[in-house]
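Q: Here's a chain of 344 amino acids. Please give me its 3D structure as C-alpha cells.
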Amino acid sequence: MASHRRPKQPSRARVTVLTTAAAAAVVLSSQAANAAPSEKLTKDEVKSKVDKLYEEAEQATETYNGAKEKQEKLQKEISTIQDNVARGQADLNELRDSMGLAAAAQYRTGSIDPSLQLLLSSNPDDYLDKASAADQLSAQQVEALKKIQEKQRELAQERSEASTKLKDLATTRTELGKKKKEVQGKLAEAQKLLNTLTAKEKSALSAADARASRDAGQRVDLGDTPPGSGFAMAAFRAAQTQLGKPYQYGATGTATYDCSGLTSWAYGQAGVHISRTSQAQANDGTRIYSKSDLKVGDLVIFYGDQHHVGLYAGNGQVLHAPRTNTVVRYESIDNMPFQFGVRI
C-alpha cells in the first residue's frame, strides 16, 4: 500500500533566513536603482574633474621633463667619461710598452736591472717607495714610472665617476618611467570620465574647446605694452608661428608642444638656450613680481609649484600651450594663478 506521508515542512529557521535574504536583496536592488542616477555626473562636473586631472597630468609632465633632461645629460657625461677612460687606457698601455722595450733592451745585453723588473709589475707605487729612494732607477725611468702612476690614478677616478653616474642614470630612468605612467594614468582617467558623457555632451565640450582655441588664436593687440629685448621679441614672434599646434606632454615641437617645450623652443629660435622645465625656467633670469612691469616676450610662471609657463603677449595676455586637448593659443593671464614673470 502506498505511503501517504505529509511532505516535510521547511524549518522555521530556514524560512526566516530565506525571507531575510530576499528582503535584503530587494533593499539593495532598490538602493542601487536609487543611487545610480545620483552617481551620474553632469557635464560641468565632468569638465571640472577632467580639468583637474589635466592640471595634475601637467604637474607630472614637468617632473617627467626634468627626469628626461637629466637622463640625456647623464648619458652624454657617461659617454664622455668612457671615451676618456678608453683613451687613458691606451696611453697607459703605450707607457708600459715603452718601459717594456727598455727592459727588453737591457735583457738582451745581459744588464737588466732587477729594479726594472719590479717597475713592470702591477704595483709601481710600491716600487717607488722601495726603490726610488735607493737610486736604483735612472731619472728617465723614474719620470716614466710617475707618468704611469698618474695615469692609473686618473683612470681609477674616472671609472669611479662613471660607476656613480651609471647608478644615478638607473635611478633617473626609474623615475622617468614612474612619471610617464602617472601622466598616462591621469590622461586615461580623464578620458574615462569623458566617456561617461552622452554624444551630445561630448560634442558641446569639444565645440567649447574649439571655440576657445579659435578665439584665442587671433592676433592680440599689444597696445601700450613695452616690447622686450631683441631676443625676447624674436622668441615671442617664433612662438606666434606655432599658434594652433596641439598640446602633447613631453613635446618640444614643431608638430606638438607642452608648456615649457614651447617656451624653450621659442627662445632657442632666438639663439638663447633656456632650461627645459618650467620650474628651472623660473630661475633662468630676473624675476618680475608685478604684472604691470611685464614686457612682451617675458616668461610668465603660474601655480605655486611653478608647473606652468607661457610667454607674455601684452595687454594681460599670455601665449602658451595650455593642456591636453588644447592648442597653442593666447589666454588671459588672470585665468591661472600668476606667480611672477622671468626676464631672460
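Q: Can you summarize the key feature?
A: The longest strand covers residues 308-314.
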